[in-house]
Structure formats: C-alpha cells, structure tokens
Amino acid sequence: MACDWLIHNALVLTLEPGSRPLPGGYVAVQGGRIAAVGRADVPGDLPAAQENLDARGALVLPGLVNTHCHAPMVWFRGLADDLPLQQWLTEFIFPAELGWLDPDKVYWGTLLAAAEMIRGGITTVGDSYFFAAEARRALAEAGLRAVVAQGVVDFPAPGVPDPALNLQVAEDFLNTGANFGSRVTSAVFCHAPYTCGPETLQKAKDLTRARGVPYFIHLAETRQEVVDLEARTGLSPAAYLDRLGVQDELTVVVHGVWLTPADGEILARRCVKLCHCPESNLKLAAGVAPIPELLEQGVIVGLGTDGAASNNNLDLWGEMSLTARLHKVWGRDPTLLPAPRVVAMATRDGAAVLGLGRATGVLAPGMAADLIVVALDRPHLTPLYDPYSHLVYTARAADVQHVMVAGRWLLSEGRFTTLDWPALAARARSLSRDLSACCRRLRPGA
C-alpha cells in the first residue's frame, strides 16, 4: 500500500537516542504518522507513495518544540524595552493587558505568533496566557501541535476581572478542550509564587492532577523573587512548592534562573520538568540558569522563547545558539552543552517537558509526522561536516523550507498553507495602531 507522503533524498536526523545521521534518507508518512524511516542507496529502494517531496540533499529532522510561550504577547513586542522585570510588568504590560486585550485580540495575536513559529520550524508549542480559549482556537486553526494553558493570578486579569473566579475560569477552560482532539490539549498556568497565593497554587494543582494535564509556573526567575520568598516563608523556591505539594511529573517550572543545587535535587526527585528561556532571561537581566547542573542532576530541560514582549522574537534557532554559547562562557568550559545535546533539548526533550514524548520529538515509526525540512544549499551552511553543529551555530529560521504537523504541510517552499498571511498582516497592523492609542491613554506623557 502506498503511503501518503514520502520525503526522500535527504540527510535525516531522527533524534532517537544514539542514532546517527542518515544520508540519502527518507521519511514515509501515512495517516498523520511516520510509517517508516530509512536510507535508500538507489531509488528502487524507496517505499511507494501517493505524493513525493524530493528534499534535494536538504536536512530533515523533527519539528522544534517551544516549551514556553505567551503567544498573544506579540502585540507588545517592542512596546516597553530595557526595563527591570517588575517595572516592565507592573507599569507597562499589566496595564496594557487590562486596558486593551480582549478575546478577539488574543485570537489574532496568537495567529500572528503562529505564523512566526511555523516560519521558523516550530511544530509544537506550550502556550500560557489569558483568554486561553481563543489562543487554543487560533493554534488549532494554524495547524500547530500545542499544549495551551489558562493563566491564573490572584488579582484582576484579562477575562478574569474577579480573581475569586480564577480557578473556575481555568476549570471551564479545561472542560471545553475535548473538541480539539489530541493535537491541541489544555492545561493550567499559575503565573508565579509572587502572584498566586498558596491556596491558589494548591487548588490549581488539584485541578490539573485530577485531569492528568500539565501545571506550568514561573519559578526563581529573578534574585529578588527568591529573596522575597525566603523572607516570607523561610524556604527556597523549589522547597516552597514542595511544601505545598504541587510538584510532580506533570509540573513544569519556567526559567529557574536562581535555583540552588538543593532545589535541583528536589525537582529531579519529583520528576519536575524545566523550560529554559535564555534570551528572555538575558534581556530582562534575570541571570543565567544553572542548566548544565540541572541536567547533571537528571532534570529534563526543554527550550522556550517566552513571549515576544520580553525576547523579542519567537525564534528557537536563536535560543539553541545562545544556550550552547552562553553556558560555555558562563561555566568557562567549551565542552558544556555540545550541539547534539542542545538539538535534543529543542526537539525530543522539549516534547518530554510538555508530556508529549510518546507523540512527537523524534522521527520513528508510529510517532506523529511532525517534521521540518531545512535547506543546506546556502553559503552559510556550506560546507557541511556536522549537521548538529550547523543547526546550533549556523542555521537560521529563514533556512526552513517545509513544515509538517500530523502529516499536514503548514509551510511549503517557504509559503504558508494554513494561514492567509496578507490578511493576517493587515489585521495585525490595524490592531497595533489601536494599541498605540490605548497606551497613550493609559500612560499620558510616557
């Protein structure tokens, strides 16, 4: 029986542990899943297919996994840069969110973010924000694989003017997620220990634990956060969450910049996962997370972009490059986080962080057909000795030619197949003018 699609004549990286690159490789896709992966020395060795993509010596690998994003915050890209985190949040971001955001703007902002991610080879995203039902709808329409989390804070927030209803809104969001199937699933995002009280943190965890879905939380992002928490509770960040009983294999902590070795031991013991967002951490001067040490302790770490307001892009290629380089200089050791390790963090480990390790992140029979085709016939990618090195230190988002999710092309020859980019861009520009006017009203004279 002929498969649906055959991508062949490629250098294939399966990202299975211990695997080697497959020159002259192919990937066969049937029913949205990978039917076969192999190497064909002669064309007659190829499986039969209804549709063929001759990758012409390009690189084929699993799609990238963005473990932490606030997609609708593309609206705030460049709105308030070069500020401390708390000032950035309280004086600019929170007022703009409360004074301007609505479900329609979250929907369009998420579509805009989806376009950026698809163009850069991201096939899976863990997204956390408010009006999450609209973000979920947009990501589903764009064709991405996603874990979408409703935000929870203990003060008025977009869509939740009464914080007493924050958990009810989150539960309602989970209750309406069944219609999206397995490609787009739902979760809860407790913003941070400094924006959610202990009761909220525990009740939100009870909710996610009962549903078997991820529980996301910012943790130990800044030194001041740690100082304040220790002054209030006498505990470090991970110890505090542990005392509350909210850490388990479904807990995903974000940033972790100021985690101590003892914190790392707690995370590893509880099988907590971590999202590393180096560009956002550096832009906000939060610091450098102890990623090599956490990996050594056994914590699973994936890469994330964070929101475009604090990055200012949704480019996982930049995160890979910075991750490898940053920790080498920070640890004064050029052997730290070698390229294959970083590519794994951006693919299979990221999938594991989101609880999707059995669905995506590697190219193997039975896994979802989530893959990207990266051009190699570019000056900056010539010659090629080590594909992992090129992916981390040389390749760019613009080198992505094709993107497939669940057997469906989202990008073909660099063109969107699920999004009307001209209409989307026009809508985004129109709404951004409205946001500029709103910001002038909220901060006259700023």
Structure described in brief:
By secondary structure, this protein is α/β, with parallel strands linked by helices. Helices cover 38% and strands 22% of the residues. It has two domains: 3-62 and 362-416, Urease, subunit C, domain 1 (Roll), CATH 2.30.40.10; 65-353, Metal-dependent hydrolases (TIM Barrel), CATH 3.20.20.140.
Structural class: alpha/beta
Q: How far is it from the N-terminal to the C-terminal residue, by CA?
A: 65 Å
**Spans of at least 5 consecutive residues with low confidence:** none
What does the average pLDDT come to?
Answer: 95
Architecture (CATH level 2) name of the largest domain: Alpha-Beta Barrel
Number-wise, the strands total 17
Number of helices: 15
For the sheet with most strands, the description reads: 9 strands, mixed
Count structural domains. 2
Helix fraction bin: 25-40%
CATH superfamily of the largest domain: Metal-dependent hydrolases
Strand content: 15-25%
